[in-house]
Amino acid sequence: MSSNSNSAPVVFLMGPTASGKTDLSIELYRTGLFEIISVDSAMIYKGMDIGTAKPGQDELSQTPHHLIDILDPCEAYSASQFSEDARKLIESITQSGKTPLLVGGTMLYFKTLRDGIADLPEADVKVRKKLKDQLDDDGIGNMHKRLAEVDPVAAKRLHHNDTQRIMRALEVFHSTGKPLSLYHQEQSLEALHNPVLSIALAPEDRTRLHQKIAQRFDKMIDNGFLDEVSELYYRDDLSLECPSMKSVGYRQLWQYLDGDFTLEDAIEKSIIATRQLAKRQYTWLRSWEDVHWYDSYVKDQRQAAFDKIVDYVSNR
Fold it and tell me: Most buried of 11, 47, 167, 184 (most Cβ within 10 A)?
């Protein structure tokens, strides 16, 4: 990036699912000051519209969002890829004289973009003990071969007798499902140099949020969410192993189509999973530094969030 684009402000509009981020971002877009970058690991996929609460086509035509509908559901997309794409957009948006408004609830994407270096997972005692038992039985040569199956990049980099690093790489994969080499790839990213205003649009009334989550999911079902999942289910190139199909709601309805449980159970499990997602998003936000909190269900606070963002951009 040029020095000019590095000094331009960026706004992060974060919050749990169903907190009203999209509505506020559209209001901000209408001021003419912003361009919107979606920060959502499910909205990136084409054909996943209803279950992701993606803005409709009419809305998107009037309020364009970057990084929506950029991939087929059979494709994978990492936090590091998001960071690279978002940085390019931030540069082009700032050079056009607008302010990048990054909106969503995929907190890992926000963190990777802001901080660059992804934190490596902490030691997993149970996984480590299990792997140690396997090492005692099979030897380090066989453990290196197993690493080559799940993380060929790391295996190629490590000597076949480097016990400590081989075991750590296996531990990371088995405790997170993510290769250590991918963590290292993400660690090569620099921190974002732009000044950032971080806004948390987060209802204080969790009961009301849970009610809204349930109401929204029921509305998704009424709007044809099951049909949307069915179209994906009957494709030959998708399964529950695909990252896209692990999204909340899609996974549970897929399991219903598999015959694992009833539709009623699938709906209940989806709502519970969405509440759990919201809880994780709150946890992320509580650990976020220099974040300004606003209760999105209180009209005056929504207006205060709007004013804070506009004033921040207008005064820089």
Answer: 11
Of the pLDDT bands very low, low, confident and very high (cuts 50, 70, 90), residue 3 is very low
Continuous H helices in the chain? 3-7, 21-29, 57-62, 79-95, 107-115, 125-138, 140-150, 152-157, 163-176, 180-187, 206-222, 225-233, 250-257, 263-286, 299-314
Please enumerate in sequence order all residues whose Cβ is within 8 A of that of 50, keeping only pairs 6 or more positions apart, or say none: 220, 223, 224, 225, 228
Burial of residue 84, with CB atoms counted within 10 A of its CB: 0-12 exposed, 13-18 middle, 19 or more buried: middle
The pLDDT mean for the chain works out to 93
- CB atoms under 10 Å from CB of 191, counted, come to 11
Rounded to 5°, the CA angle 271-202-225 comes to 30
Burial 143-169 (b: 16+ CB within 10 A, else e): bbebbbebbebbbeebeeeeeeebbbb
CATH superfamily for domain 3-118+189-314: P-loop containing nucleotide triphosphate hydrolases (3.40.50.300)
Q: Dump pLDDT digits (tens) for 237-263.
A: 999 989 999 999 999 999 999 999 999
Statement: 125-187 belongs to CATH 1.20.1250.20:
no
Sorted by where each begins, the domain ranges of the chain are: 3-118+189-314, 125-187
